[in-house]
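Folding Problem: From Residues to Backbone Shape
Fields: amino acid sequence; protein backbone structure tokens
RECORD BEGINS BELOW THIS LINE
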Amino acid sequence: MAYELITYERTGRAGLITLNRPERLNAWTPQMMVEMRSAIEESSADPQIAATVITGAGRAFCAGADIGDVFQKAADQRDTGQQETAGQDSGAGDWISFLRSLEKPTIAAVNGSAVGIGVTQILPMDIRIASENAKFGFFFVKMGLVPELGSSTLLPGMIGMSRAIEWCLTARLVPAQEAKEAGLVADVVPPEKLLDRSFEVVAQIARNPGNALAATRKLLVQNVHNDDISAVQRSEGKALADLYRGWQHKEAIKAFFEKREPDFSQPPA
């Protein structure tokens, strides 16, 4: 599809998506979500891509939902008795299951402020890397609303319940370094090194066999809230049994004994 609110390009082994409304601080709209989903699907389906990186153009990552295009339109629909469609029809309603169903990981490269849905949309992504300029704000109470996109369970799971309540009820801007110390982001880097660091992570991922990457990610996503350790071990055992039979595992063993780097690019003839 043609993209109007984002850009998409392949950079090395990464698919790079850029939210591209810098004049509006990349404020979120339903159309932006549709375009993001399409680009993420395109990236994940590309055999040359190991992971998808999402960032923002200009000085913000995403300033939350566009007040006019989203909140005011929804309020007008309610006032006139029309069906409210801002959330579900945009694809936001199943955003978590969409991201978790992907074969390849997603990396949020947060270049500036990420507030409201600008931050909740990146919680289900696999890795979050922040610029030193990044700030995170759960501003929902300021708008008389509550957090969405599963963030009321995802956020406490990442940073702890007490801190999550403090962040959400004060609706303050959280600096990047505090977000890292809390566990929201994996790394904080200077602004000029944000994409380089993100592509470095993609390159590290790309060196590993794709079948094991997909299986490992699937196990972590499926089992994160599973308290049944026996079921967890069964799912791990099934994945191991499948991987033991794969050519990638045999190549890893052979490369070890031959004292060389394994080649997972293609199966042996």
User: Anything to note?
Assistant: The CA atoms of residues 24 and 240 lie 48 Å apart.
